[in-house]
Amino acid sequence: MKDTPPAGLRYPWAEAPEHGATIEVAPGVLWMRLPLPMKLDHVNVYALDDGDSWTVIDTGFASKKTKAIWQSLMEGPLGGKPIARAIVTHHHPDHVGLAGWLQSDFGAELITTRTAWLFARMLTLDVQETPTQETMDFYRSAGMDKAIYDQRADERPFNFGDIVAPMPLGYTRIKQGDTITMGGRTWDIHIGNGHAPEHATFWSRDDNLVLSGDQILPSISPNIGVYATEPMADPIGDWLEACERLKLLARDDHLVLGGHKLPFTGLPTRMRQLIDNHHGALKRLMEYVDTPKAASECFAPLFKRKIGEGEYGLALVEAVAHLSHLYQEGRASRTRREDGAWVYQRAE
Fold first, then answer.
1. Cα–Cα dist 187/209, whole Å
2. What is the DSSP letter of 157?
3. Structural contact between residues 272 and 247, judged by C-beta atoms closer than 8 angstroms
4. The whole model's pTM is what?
């Protein structure tokens, strides 16, 4: 998949591996790609050679197609050696989806952060046939388009359990400041936030590799949203704090192996871009809410492009996140509109 790097970034590989194939990005480190049934149509996963076994980073959705690709990888490029450890960077289903399957069917040890494991296991057990009232109230408070609101009220909501394999009870916790040995290297663990709570990243002490999950991506900014589960969360504040902290670790020669798009170098530049992107969005938003506006009315200054139906949900929760950040910092006020939507206005 071709991609155009932002200025200052370099892509050592112009194309991603085909499904069932690998690219060796460093000695003993294999890059693989799995399909996703959405606009962002792939997730990157990695296998690190531990000698008599493999450690894999992230797992893809739970689907027959993805399981078949894993089987072909195990029998082919992974040489029949067992997957002894499955490390999950964060709880989103494209990363944790088959972690439980690797545990239950292949005996892999699941390694992740406590928050990622708690979220993933809780959400797989919380199957809903109809949207909860809290969810619909949250959509109303964001000013969701009425046609989309009515459609969602009548349809089965997205459930983790549909695309995440059942997760066994046990896991091994990692946290900020830990180290882990894999692929013949010692890695420092640094925790990000914003895109997902307690998101693990791995920084090699022995060479220039960084396993970044979705915390650091080259040509897209990770989605940062507020949801009905924690309507007063401030993931934008969490994101900016994490980026400021992680940028201190960044070297220009780091080869960043992320969860989507292509491996890249030029990490100090990318960290500045990721930080500046959200400060710029907040500045544009401040200028836009000179009169009261709901989150659904703020797509234009935030995204600077047309938002289609397939992107609407993610755009809405990201708009809520940015407006709520301004509100919680005292830079904007908010009031309830007659239709139940929170409307935000720049503080004088």
1. 9
2. P
3. yes
4. 0.95
